[in-house]
Model the fold of this input.
Amino acid sequence: MNPIIKNVLGFVLGAFGAVMLNGLIIRIGGSIIPPPPGTNLSTPEGIKAAMPLLEARHFLFPFIAHALGSLAGAFIGSMLSASYRLIIALVIGGLHMVGGVMMVMMVPAPTWFNILDLGMAYLPMAWLGWKIAESIRK
Done:
């Protein structure tokens, strides 16, 4: 297969995988650690209203979703790409991080969570996804 097509396909499937896994973990997280009674976390407005009621444990699955989404997306992109694998992995993590920055701007989460999430869940995990893919490729 043409290397350019392989790279584009790796990027697209990796980015798609990151978003899909992120959404799946967020959905599952709400059933494992339910939100406080009477809250609606399905809209930014509902999250804003519920924020004073949320405990640290309620931020666990969003962090896991962001971290594993970036890791898996970067891994998929790195495994499927013919070249520029690190760049593709980091761009996937960076685009996933853009979504995180948009959430930080829309929803006032605690500062500790924003720092942890933006600092550790996206680019470092994308780098780790690339590293894992490279170790498998050898």
Remarks:
- The chain has a mean pLDDT of 95.
- The two ends are 20 Å apart (CA to CA).
- The longest helix spans residues 3-32.
- Residues 26 and 62 are 6 Å apart (CA to CA).
